[in-house]
Amino acid sequence: MTERIIRAGDPPLAVRVLECGAPAGVPLVFVQGGLGEAIGWASLLAELREFRCLTLDRPGGGLSDGVDFLAIDVRRLAVDVLAALLDAVEVERAAFVANSMGAWWTLQLATERAARVSRLALLGCPALLLDSTAPLPMRLMSIPVLGGAMVKLMVPSSATKAREVPGFLGHPKDVGRRWHEVEASAHHRFGQLPNFQRSWRTLLRRFLRPWGSNRAMAISAAQLKRVAAPTLFLWGADDPFGGPEVGRAAVEAMPDARLEVVGRGHLPWWDEPAECARWIRELIARPATQVG
């Protein structure tokens, strides 16, 4: 695996980019949900080694710069960062694999700079897709004073506690127990970084409300109609951010999309990495006219 730091956004932010897999393979860009720490993709990256796998710590998360999401144009940041990543690795057009808030980011690129996105694999409910929102504890974290205290309480205090996170996201309890010690430790340690709490708190305040979502940030049916790239939704049966019916409504709104139910929780590859990898390979291999 190789690592580089690029600069993107206005003002410029340092963004950590990681590359693994086959250097001559078809490029796949992975954009994680939450604050965007690339570690979340570990089990799926291991299944897709024949591709040139590119991923990043989204600004706000991991070893990238922190962000006050209440003080920036998040849509502009999403497009600028993902386009800058493609420029930095000298890829004009790529397939994207994305989850939750990472899917929200990727859909901004797919509608604003469609020529740069060849395929979309969206794993789990994209953030604020149509009428979806987040579980109540996350919505409560969007309340200014209460939210700050809740963020501090809910950040895993150890690697052992980090193993409990998948259960909150709709996964069977044994998912976190199966993590390698290094993976569990990374999930814990990223939450202890100096920029984590401000970035997470302001992200939630920008996108969520105690009663639902910030409608101004939602992905609408009209936006989905503008997504030209062939799209595959892989959706956990018990995704707490929105059930498969949300994905089916999205498919109906899009020109070239399909949905498959895989796994249980919000990050389907945590449940079924090999099955998710199989569907992604099929998406990449199909001619555009056969997807959907």
Structural commentary:
The protein has 292 residues and is of the alpha/beta class. It has a domain at 2-133 and 219-286: Alpha/Beta hydrolase fold, catalytic domain (Rossmann fold, 3-Layer(aba) Sandwich), CATH 3.40.50. The chain has helices at residues 42-45, 74-88, 101-112, 136-140, 144-154, 159-162, 165-168, 174-177, 181-190, 196-207, 221-224, 244-253, 268-271, 273-285, and strands at residues 2-8, 13-21, 27-31, 52-57, 94-98, 117-123, 208-209, 212-213, 231-235, 257-261. The strands form 2 sheets. The protein has an 8-stranded mixed sheet with strand order 1-2-4-3-5-6-9-10, with helices on both faces. A two-stranded antiparallel sheet has the order 7-8. Helix 2 packs across helix 3 and helix 5 crosses helix 10 (196-207). The protein is globular and about 50 Å long.
